[in-house]
């Protein structure tokens, strides 16, 4: 979802895909310790190798940067419109390619 083109938002400015933006961020950041602990600590359990941990580290950092600027409760439109959202998409695409190899 993070690698996809931003969707056409619903009438109240929300992403109506499943998973939506909120859930994708929760699964990547809130449901892992990767915003506080290096993803390398997950090698052998969730991640296969240092290449995967490197790309995950970059995606998490980009998502956290957007969250810091926009705020966790900000609208999906604000997140998708953030100046580095294209970096989030690019990094998520790289991570997706890496994780599905």
UniProtKB/TrEMBL annotation:
InterPro entries named among the record's database cross-references: DUF7945
Pfam families for the chain: DUF7945
The name this protein goes by in its record: Uncharacterized protein
